[in-house]
Specification:
By secondary structure, chain A is of the alpha+beta class. Chain A has 2 domains: 91 residues, Orthogonal Bundle (Cyclin A, domain 1); 82 residues, SH3 type barrels. The longest helix of chain A has 15 residues. Chain B folds into 2 domains: 35 residues, no CATH class; 145 residues, Nitrile Hydratase, Chain A (Alpha-Beta Complex). The N and C termini of chain B lie far apart (76 Å). The chains are: A alpha+beta (219), B mainly alpha (207).
Chain lengths: 219, 207
């Protein structure tokens, strides 16, 4: 989706403002919003790609205006409703619908360290032949899917060189929409900065982008 | 039940603090989340997982050439040797700064970040200015962080578009030969491991 989230190469967003000695969370509600997202994810009603796409679906003006954890909160409400875990009426009222059953949370405090330590690997141990190899020149496809994709707009239709093959990973473009994992090779592809940005870029610099087989064709 | 009708006419709270509070109480009341699990999650990211983890990895690589080799070859396994891994660090890549090459990490599409070694990302890393400009004007961004690189240095920007998570191995500063691994780790900053800074030498070298 050609949304505002796809920010690489945009200009006029202002200077980077670093905050010295920044706390992990700036307010209690940020910490709670973070933890609510993590704990709700334990229902496994959605995956990381669907979660990312839900943020991309926020109205563009909201996306630019909202802070990070405001976006996480808005995204969580949408995911919960779409998963059928809560209704919009319940979110509006803040109360469970009359007579609705009480569930048992899948993530309890005692399980938290183990769940975080285990992580959620996106690498898959399934056979999939690589279409490219390190050192090969490739061109990214000029594609503009209306759904989720991880091929940034600034890198479409560009020629680069495969730096390394990372192995076989879940494909976000299908997984985000629950169309299956479609595991395939991911490569780190090196693009000369001038290939992406023209003569204004340094002749020495490069951008490395992790790209799936389906994004690439031989160059 | 009886007051349901009244609530229909209430404005949805727009204050994020109220929104989150209402959402938490709803999810707890429905048995969807355990409030003690929320406390445990917050405690881990506020107090246990942070840039100190990454700093220990860097210091070990500086003092142990065999470890550094393993780290550059299979970062996930080498980082696990020190006990770090898991969520948002499942698939790690370490990129090494040298006098000729400077690495910088960004996520232009969202805010991907190696939580297991750096903790949760700072606001600037998630902000539009950084995400938009790190790829098109990395040298300008680095200048804003006070890091001016020579024309001769090659800048490599790593856009975290997949599930690989990147950690920069900064250059060991000169004059630190006598420091212990622990003292070296204390010099390593989060910003140096993202690539927006270098590791500075200790302010007072031994007299």
């Amino acid at each position: 989706m050609n949304g505002v989230h796809d920010m690489g190469g945009m200009q006029d967003m202002g200077p980077v403002q670093a905050e010295p000695n920044e706390p992990v969370f700036h307010a209690t509600w940020e910490a709670r919003a973070f933890a609510l997202n993590m704990a709700s994810g334990a229902w496994r009603k959605w995956n990381i790609d669907a979660g990312r796409h839900e943020i991309e679906l926020l109205p563009p003006v909201d996306y630019l205006r909202m802070s990070y954890y405001e976006k996480w909160t808005a995204r969580l409400e949408e995911l919960l409703v779409k998963a059928g875990l809560v209704t919009r009426e319940e979110i509006a009222s803040g109360k469970p619908a009359p007579g609705s059953p009480k569930a048992t949370p899948p993530l309890t405090a005692d399980k938290v360290p183990f769940v975080l330590r285990s992580g959620a690997a996106a690498k898959r141990d399934v056979p999939a032949a690589p279409r490219f190899h390190a050192g090969q020149r490739v061109r990214t496809r000029n594609m503009h899917p209306a759904g989720h994709t991880r091929l940034p707009r600034y890198a479409r239709g560009k020629v680069g060189t495969v730096d390394r093959d990372h192995g076989i990973y879940v494909f976000p473009d299908t997984n985000a929409h629950f169309f299956g994992e479609k595991p395939q090779h991911v490569y780190s592809v090196r693009f000369a900065a001038r290939e992406l940005w023209g003569d204004q870029a340094s002749p020495r610099d490069a951008v490395y982008i992790d790209l799936w087989d389906d994004y690439l064709e031989p160059a | 039940m009886g007051d349901h009708h009244e609530h229909e006419h209430q404005a949805v709270p727009s204050d994020p603090a109220l929104c989150v509070k209402a959402l938490e109480s709803l999810l707890v009341e429905k048995g969807l989340v355990d409030p003690a699990a929320l406390d445990a999650l917050i405690d881990i990211y506020e107090n246990k997982v942070g840039p100190r983890n990454g700093a220990r990895v860097v210091a070990r690589a500086w003092v142990d050439p065999a470890y550094k080799q393993r780290l550059l070859l299979d970062a996930t396994a080498a980082i696990a040797e020190l006990g770090y891994g898991g969520r948002q660090g499942e698939h790690m890549v370490v990129v090494e700064n040298t006098p000729a090459i400077h690495n910088l990490v960004v996520c232009t599409l969202c805010s991907c970040y190696p939580w297991s070694v750096l903790g949760l990302p700072p606001v600037w890393y998630k902000s539009a200015p950084y995400r938009s400009r790190a790829v098109i004007d990395p040298r300008g961004v680095l200048c804003e962080f006070g890091l001016e690189l020579s024309e001769e240095t090659e800048v490599r920007v790593w856009d975290s578009t997949a599930e690989l998570r990147y950690l920069v191995l900064p250059e060991r500063p000169a004059g630190t030969e006598s420091l212990s691994e622990e003292e070296l780790a204390a010099l390593v900053t989060r910003d140096a491991m993202i690539g927006v800074a270098k590791v500075a030498a200790p302010r007072r070298a031994a007299a």
